[in-house]
Amino acid sequence: MAVRYQSLRGFSDLLPGETELWQAFETRARRALARYGFREIRPPHLEKTELFTRSVGEGTDIVGKEMFTFEVSGDSVSLRPELTAQVCRAYIEHGLDRRGLGRLYYVGPAFRKERPQKGRLRQFHQVGVEVFGESAPETDVEVIAVALETVAAAGVEQPRLLLNSIGDPESRTAYKRILVAALESVRAQLCADCRTRLERNPLRVLDCKVDHCRTLTADAPRIDEHLSDDARRHFDAVRAGLDRLGIAYQVDPRLVRGLDYYVHTTFEIQAEGLGSQNTVLGGGRYDGLVAQLGGRQVPGIGWAAGIERLLMAAGVDTAESREVLDLYLVTLGPRAREGALELAQKLRAEDLRVGWDTAGHGLGGQMKRAGRSGARYAVLVGDDELERGLVSVKDLSSGEQSEAPLEPGELAVWLRRRSEEQC
RNA sequence: GUGGGCGUAGCUCAGCGGUAGAGUCCCUGACUGUGGAUCAGGAUGUCGUGGGUUCAAAUCCCAUCGCCCACCCCA
Asked: Is the CB of A282 under 7 A from strand B?
């Protein structure tokens, strides 16, 4: 382990075995997203810092202390700590509203300078969606539905959907005042963190984990009792829609998102087995954001999920035993050995994944390598086979052996037919 | 950012002042007509890094880097 260089704290390598799991997840997730009409967008990793401070919020921890920020030609730039602001920027910049591109998704890394922990890296990966220009509650329902499908695509069992409404900006501001006033009497007894939250982001006092604080705030006024009529109607319609689709959820009046731009519907999906980082997906509506960033008054809603967390929650181990080659070529005798390079190439031209022993070990050694290579079949070529125009094909998991044509095109057909028979 | 645990072979880990170990993996052979078994041989480490204490440090002390866990925050 005395390695001269190691990756930076909180930055990690994804190795073969894991990459295949990620690819499989991404393929399933993209399919699900496509079914809802989402198209992929890939914003750059670096962006002007101001975009994030404006959108995520000056007072949030993400902006306050977790961004990787530096200077480029006199501009303050940052590695993106999340993608929503960027997608909004791109939406405005390229006039995507006029091109009918209102449903967008992304897959990629984000960066936050936090202390690493299980399910929390400094470079982590998110898959997320943004919908622009749709304000109806049905949209909220669809966005939540596709969120659940994405979580399912990772193989997470028994996800828990938590739902809340934090109202429109007016009811939210009004509620904040009511909440602060109500907690004034117990202020001194709250934990230190909650006392600062009371100043900076009072809603967050409600989801403090300290038991003592929870008891103190148990009877605090609830946001769902202070929604405007519009907000109330919207939330009821979202719930009705979820009910109609048979989607189970739990209303949690204490569910508050940490980013400033959220309004109305907020939601979160939690999974078991992740310790304290059990939130696997989070999102909500952000109707004012596009306008705030200089665009027209366009409603928006979206969510983001942590891919590392999703895969961890699904509890799939690295796919070590995965089949990575279709066949391993085993040669016997100098004639077959000489033809191996060319034969392998011809088989690859038939779109087969082929391995062979370039080092030229004996039969035993080659079979050993065939077994380890993760190939489905060992294809044996010797003098005998060459003469008869045949190869011996051994199924490496069952041990069954049979003969097949030597000619690459015919062999490819033979192997495919055989694989299908067995599936 | 705060608190705690841990860094020894590619991997999992034992050793905890006195010559660096096990299992596994890897390599070679038995093996030029058959791999996963068995047998025989072999390779591998600045004991995370830097400093200190000591006749002697993987072992004790300090610092530092990284990992893990909790807080915080969030996906």
From this structure: yes
The per-residue pLDDT for range A118-141, each reduced to its tens digit, is 889 999 999 999 999 999 999 999
C1' of nucleotide B27: residue with nearest CA: A365
> Is A254 among the domain residues?
yes
Average pLDDT, rounded, for chain A: 90
Residues 198-237 of chain A within 7 A of strand B, judged by CB, are: 204, 208-210
Could you tell me the distance in Å between the CA of residue A20 and the C1' of nucleotide B10?
21
The amino acid at A330? V
CB proximity A196–strand B (7 Å threshold): no
Q: Evaluate whether A138 touches A129 at the Cβ level (below 8 Å).
A: no
**A13 in a structural domain:** no
Taking only the tens place, the pLDDT of each residue in A315-348 is: 766 555 567 899 999 999 888 988 999 999 999 9
Q: Using 70 as the pLDDT threshold, list the residues of chain A that sit under it.
A: 1-4, 258, 316-322, 423
Does residue A190 sit in the same domain as residue A251?
no
Strand B–CB A74 distance below 7 A:
no
Whether complex ipTM tops 0.90: no
Tokens 């000619």 belong to: A407
Tell me the residue range of the domain where A133 lies. 18-167+244-314
In a domain, A9, yes or no: no
